[in-house]
Structures are given as C-alpha cells and as structure tokens.
C-alpha cells in the first residue's frame, strides 16, 4: 500500500508470512496476505 506521494506504508509477501515453495501461489496464501494488508491499513488509518 502506498500513499499519494508514492511512499510505501505497508507491504506483505508470501515469504513474509513464512510460506515457502509451491504453497506461495495458493488461494489460501493470497487470502492470508489480503487479511494482513487490510488489518494493517485499518491500524494505520488509511
């Protein structure tokens, strides 16, 4: 997530959630990343 100036406010990747190998591209991992991004943006007030 970036602000209007282009500054990165938060980011997540499958490896940041400790998913490795072929598990990185599953729907479960994508959903887990989306939940973490949503939670963090709410905490930041974005």
From TrEMBL:
A GO cellular-component term linked to this record: ribonucleoprotein complex
Species for this entry: Physcomitrium patens (Spreading-leaved earth moss)
Protein name (record): Uncharacterized protein
Entry keyword set: Ribonucleoprotein, Ribosomal protein
Domain of life: Eukaryota
One BP term from GO: translation
GO MF annotation list: structural constituent of ribosome
Taxonomic lineage: Eukaryota, Viridiplantae, Streptophyta, Embryophyta, Bryophyta
């Amino acid at each position: 997530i970036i602000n209007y100036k282009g500054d990165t406010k938060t980011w997540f990747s499958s490896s940041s959630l400790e998913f490795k190998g072929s598990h990185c591209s599953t729907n479960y991992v994508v959903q887990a990343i989306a939940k973490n991004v949503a939670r963090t943006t709410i905490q930041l007030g974005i």
